[in-house]
Amino acid sequence: MENRKSFGAFLLQRRKELGMTQKEFANRLFVTDSAVSKWERGLAYPDITLLQSICQVLEVSEKELLSASEDSEGRRVEQLAKKYLRLSRNNRLIQSILYGGTLVICLICNLAVNHTLSWFWLVLGGLLLCASLTFLPSFAPEGRRGTTVFGGFLLSLLFLLGVSCLYSGGDWFLTAAVASVFGLGLVFLPFVLRQIPLPPELRERKALLYVGIELALLILLYAVCIAPVESYGGSWFVSATLWTVFGLSVLLLPFFLRRAIPLPEGWRSHKALVYFAFTSLLLLVGIGWEGRCYTGSISLLASYAITLCSLALPWGWLGLVRYLPLGSPWYCLGTGFLWSAVWLECFPVLLNSILIAVGEASDRPLHLLPYGVDFTNWRDAWVVSDNINFIVILSLLALGCACIGIGRWRKQQAKQQGE
Questions:
Q1: Which pLDDT band, with edges at 50, 70 and 90, does 391 fall under?
Q2: What burial letters (b/e) apply to 27-61, b meaning 16+ CB within 10 Å?
Q3: What pTM did the predictor assign?
């Protein structure tokens, strides 16, 4: 508290501002006039048990009483808070009257005109959709407002789609519902996952959970949207699902293997191997399914042979860069470039051999370079292709030798510094 003089002066000022006499003030506090007089003259302090009653009688806060001064900022904040609460109550009341009145009018009109409830349900769905954005937020708890509004909007939208489908006599509700949930989740699910409580094992894997939920919704959308296709024997759904999972794995699996997907202790240092093995397996399964369902000129065995020849390039890089014990990253990088040159030289020949085996040899058989290379001829398409391939192979060989040379030079530099 401040000194007694300022405290007494504050009591006297507030009592006079409220138009009370000392006797009236004393009667409301159940004390004597002389006690009030001592307080106001700064001769004594009131008992601590009377502070709350004094604040109520003088219409001040405890902070103002103890500091013996008016808290203008606190009063303004309190007034604004009361004004906000009053506006919120009025807003809820007005919206309740508008939404409720509209529903009652539509209910009466629908019954009076059609003698049944038909288009009334469409109005109800539309009003629920609007109320989820304008009315529901005022009832949502703090910290969960976004999740509450999203849930209310989604349920209202599904209700509106359902009654619209029934009213029109269609059978598109399931497709529209799954598509709506998938689209809204694609945009708003990351924010929802930040607000809803999750088990401890999922809190650090929200990105994986998001992709998993959206992938499940997309597969469900495939199931309800895709009709059997005659040329694929009705297998379009499986094909779309396999290639979607394969594409997402190629793009996102490296990020999830680093943080989200727990691996056994022995596999944590082999994440690249897990990535290549999983995506290669998916690719082979997809090709096997397509070969089972599609009968073309190239057999399934030939498709597998071409795929394995193509996979030799990334698997070769993985083995050389990650597992070849050369001691220097420059050596590993150099051998990777050299392997790319060898693969680019051999792949056309292997491809041509596979095509010959299935009776699909080209008019101009593929061959090892530099056979067919002619840098004076840049008009014939086949010769131009050979020229470009030969230049790329030479460039890869040069890069590989350069990297190995840099590695050898750095090794000698390190050895000299060590001596």
A1: very high
A2: eebebeeebbebbbebeeebeeebeeebbebbebe
A3: 0.71
